[in-house]
Design a protein that fits this description.
This protein is α/β, with parallel strands linked by helices. 26% of the residues lie in helices and 24% in strands.
């Protein structure tokens, strides 16, 4: 968290900033500042603290002296400051702006590694201390709205605290003029945001997209799953100004996977959350601007070499190229009361977040592919009796053999092949599930992994197959090729029927639907982007 810099390293860091003399009592940045600097301390002393609120006192986080620097990971992801830095002893500091910090990290590998390790370590250390109270979520324990806020904060690696209340109770919120109907509430710097959503919280934290005047970015990546993250990382690392958008939070279906065992380099497996967390940090290292939740709703041509990506809030991002990695939307079972329990018992992921809702309680997992098998084993390993419902007659038809064998040998998992879920029941929260071959079983959670529909309805002009998957490269329909004659070329690998618009990952027709394949496609699409921009 506090690296010791050599004289040479210190000189290079100081040279990136602007010198400023400070007096005791000055604030070099304050909580809520939308744009603030890395503060390099040449002399004097600076105290980092969490501001007091109506219901909590001020809390000192740390004190920093000469030859150190004040700042944390929010400097890279664009988040507003959530702590305040106050001068305790007069001295001289050097302000390194966000732009200058990114330039320094791009040009100086040695300092980049030192700074990145320090910023990340500080973010991790702040999770369990008083800083976590700067962003506090309060909601009903069984509420999927509270779960959505927690998932958003965890995937974006935000320092926060979540409090789950029993149904119908408010706890200490009575004193804040808050009703049950106002839940979930997000307290941001002590101020309540009622009926909070990830989008509203992101707006308050400075994490929503804000275009700079007349800005044109080289590459917009739409979708933050493995394909999108790989595309953004490779694009930014190769010099393209890159924006990454995700309608929910980075990670996609991979982040919902409890254990990935067939990804290169992880012989003992890796959780989707850990893999995505490291990928996001890598994206920030290379200067990717990550915005979530930020939903793209349209893509139009703004000129021969320009594209406009329309966002759901009416804003536009102008870009020279785009890679669509929007993945697919989770499929739902056509059952009565399904919508009722989506907020209190139906889940589309099996990660530690969902586990906390059902640990030790009986659950039902629906699906016959790897994600369902991994979820069943993960939940069983943490004390939940599991019923795995598979529509097909053979578990090995769509599932890797190593998973199918483990499930068959695990006494904690009851596998029901040639079976379907036919009903849900419960008073407010899910209590039981009906399976056509065995009848009603106790269940406090239903985990649905029955596939997904490609998220391409916002791209009606692109050439797609009958199921909505995007055609690319040599798969593009011949009837759409006339527009390419003026360019003197055919669609490049991963390029769609629209020039300079590419697709990779689950959204692309013919993709492998595996994490490793998605990463490969996302990075390979960037090679085609470079070729397209060169024409």
């Amino acid at each position: 968290m506090s690296p010791v810099l050599t004289d040479e390293q210190w000189g290079r860091l100081v040279a990136a900033g602007t010198a400023e003399d400070v007096a005791a009592g000055d604030h070099v940045f304050r909580a809520g500042d939308a744009d603030y600097d890395l503060i390099v301390i040449e002399s004097g002393e600076i105290q980092i603290f969490r501001d007091a609120a109506r219901w909590i006192e001020e809390a000192v986080i740390t004190t920093m002296g000469p030859r150190s620097f004040a700042g944390e990971l929010g400097l890279l992801n664009g988040q507003s400051a959530f702590l305040t830095a106050r001068v305790m002893q007069p001295g001289r500091v050097h302000r390194v702006s966000r732009a200058a910090l990114r330039a320094l990290m791009n040009e100086d590998d040695e300092l980049c590694d030192l700074i990145l390790h320090a910023l990340w370590a500080r973010r991790e250390s702040l999770r369990t201390g008083p800083a976590a109270m700067t962003l506090k979520f309060v909601g009903t324990a069984s509420s999927n709205d509270l779960l959505a806020l927690r998932r958003f904060a965890e995937r974006l690696d935000l320092v926060h605290k979540a409090v789950a209340l029993p149904p119908g109770e408010l706890g200490s919120l009575d004193s804040h003029d808050i009703t049950v109907g106002d839940l979930p509430v997000a307290f941001i710097q002590g101020e309540p945001l009622k009926r909070a959503t990830p989008g509203l919280v992101a707006e308050r934290l400075g994490l929503s997209y804000q275009a700079q005047a007349d800005e044109v970015v080289d590459l917009v990546v739409v979708g933050g799953g493995p394909a999108g993250l790989a595309a953004a990382i490779y694009g930014a690392s190769e010099g393209l100004s890159t924006v990454l958008l995700d309608a929910v939070a980075p990670g996609g279906q991979a982040a919902a996977t409890s254990r990935i065992e067939n990804f290169l380099g992880f012989p003992f497996g890796v959780s989707g959350g850990d893999l995505i967390g490291q990928a996001i940090l890598q994206a920030l290292k290379f200067g990717v601007r990550v915005y979530a939740p930020c939903e793209a709703v349209g893509l139009t041509r703004a000129g021969p070499d320009l594209l406009d990506i329309a966002l759901s809030d009416g804003r536009l991002i102008r870009a020279r190229s785009a890679i669509v990695t929007s993945g697919a939307a989770y499929r739902r079972l056509d059952l009565d009361r399904w919508a009722d329990f989506e907020r209190s018992g139906v889940y589309y992921a099996a990660t530690p977040l969902e586990l906390r809702q059902v640990q030790g309680k009986p659950v039902v997992v629906v699906g016959g592919a790897n994600s369902a098998g991994q979820a069943a084993l993960y939940l069983a390993a943490h004390g939940s009796p599991v019923h795995l419902v598979v529509r097909g007659h053979d578990l090995g038809t769509r599932m890797s053999s190593y998973l199918a064998d483990r499930l068959a040998d695990d006494p904690r998992v009851h596998v029901h092949t040639s079976s379907n879920v036919t009903g849900l029941d419960g008073d407010g929260t899910l209590e039981s599930v009906r399976i056509d071959t065995v009848g009603e079983v106790d269940a406090r959670g239903l985990f649905c992994f029955i596939g997904a529909t490609p998220a391409t309805s916002w791209l009606p002009t692109l050439d797609r197959d009958a199921e909505g998957f995007i055609r690319t490269g040599t798969d593009v329909g011949i009837q759409t090729l006339a527009q390419w004659q003026g360019l003197g070329r055919e669609p490049l690998p991963f390029e769609t029927s629209a020039p300079r618009v590419f697709a990779a990952g689950d959204v692309r027709r013919g993709s492998m639907k595996r994490v490793a394949a998605a990463v490969g496609e996302g990075s390979s699409a960037v090679a085609s982007v470079h070729r397209a921009l060169a024409f």
